[in-house]
Specification:
By secondary structure, this protein is of the alpha/beta class. The chain has helices at 49-56, 77-87, 103-114, 118-132, 147-159, 177-194, 205-210; strands at residues 7-18, 23-34, 38-42, 64-69, 88-91, 165-169, 197-202, 213-218, 221-224. Helix content is 37%, strand content 27%. Bound molecules: adenosine-5'-triphosphate and magnesium ion. Adenosine-5'-triphosphate (ATP) binds next to β2 and α1. Magnesium ion binds at residues 49-50, 169-170, 201.
């Protein structure tokens, strides 16, 4: 990965504890992610991978330390909204889709948040759905889809507003091995094709190794694996 690429994420000496300091999680964690690269956060259960993603994505705030994400400071409430609407996409372990809405309806939600015109949204939904092989399911409800299909939809949803950065928290964690491999490959291919940076939390070494770079999360810190 070229060193000349723009830095999209800077996490600098970040500390985070839960339960009024009784559960220390991050203790001086630092990392950088550049445009277009796919970076794994690899570590044991409870090591703080999700916590890190939540801080980067502005779903939580650190106790101490600096964060810069796509030109914004996710510690600031005013920046968080803009980050989540326009710059970031999230994919979670459980898809977090609305079960009794159709695929298409779910994919309209992020577009509504930024006021994108309907015709443009429809075209974007079709393009993404074709890219992940779910176009034939657009009128089906989420509850009628398989786990792998739901995760494809979740990836589309995360990409709807053309983010520069995708935060993926164990996106294959609820899938069987073969489906997990498929979803991982799809994510990587889409990210590379669209020049999107991905930060992927995983405890599975095979996925970490398949990223452009993998970082180890251990003892509250992040290091090169
Ligand atoms: N809101 C919270 N309140 C209290 N403790 C929390 C909270 N969120 C996380 N923790 C604790 O912080 C630690 C790190 O959690 P985190 O979810 O970041 O780990 P993880 O590396 O993502 O683990 P996993 O691989 O199981 O998803 C865990 O010990 C967890 O119990
Ligand atoms: Mg986690």
């Amino acid at each position: 990965m070229s060193e000349a690429r723009e830095i999209l994420v800077t996490v600098q000496e970040v500390w985070k504890a839960y339960d009024e300091g009784r559960v220390p999680v991050l203790q001086g964690a630092s990392l950088e992610v550049r445009a277009g690269e796919m970076v794994a956060l690899w570590g044991a259960s409870g090591s703080g991978k999700s916590t890190l993603l939540h801080l980067i994505g502005g779903l939580d705030v650190p106790d101490r330390g600096e964060l810069h994400v796509c030109g914004h400071d996710p510690r600031r409430e005013s920046d968080r909204l803009e980050l989540r609407r326009r710059h970031l996409g999230f994919v979670f372990q459980l898809h977090n889709l609305i079960a009794d809405l159709t695929v298409e309806e779910n994919l309209r939600v992020p577009a509504l948040a930024v006021g994108r015109p309907t015709a443009q949204t429809t075209a974007r939904i079709r393009t993404l759905a074709e890219q992940v092989g779910i176009a034939h399911r657009l009128k089906h409800r989420i509850q009628d889809l398989s786990g792998g299909e739901r995760q494809r939809v979740a990836i589309c949803r995360a990409l709807m507003n053309e983010p520069r950065l995708l935060l993926a928290d164990e996106p294959t964690g609820s899938l069987d091995e073969a489906t997990g491999d498929l979803i991982f490959s799809l994510l990587k291919e889409l990210a590379v094709r669209n020049g999107i940076a991905v930060v992927l939390a995983t405890h599975e070494r095979r996925f970490a190794e398949a990223c452009h770079r993998w970082l180890r999360v251990r003892n509250g810190k992040v290091s090169d694996a």
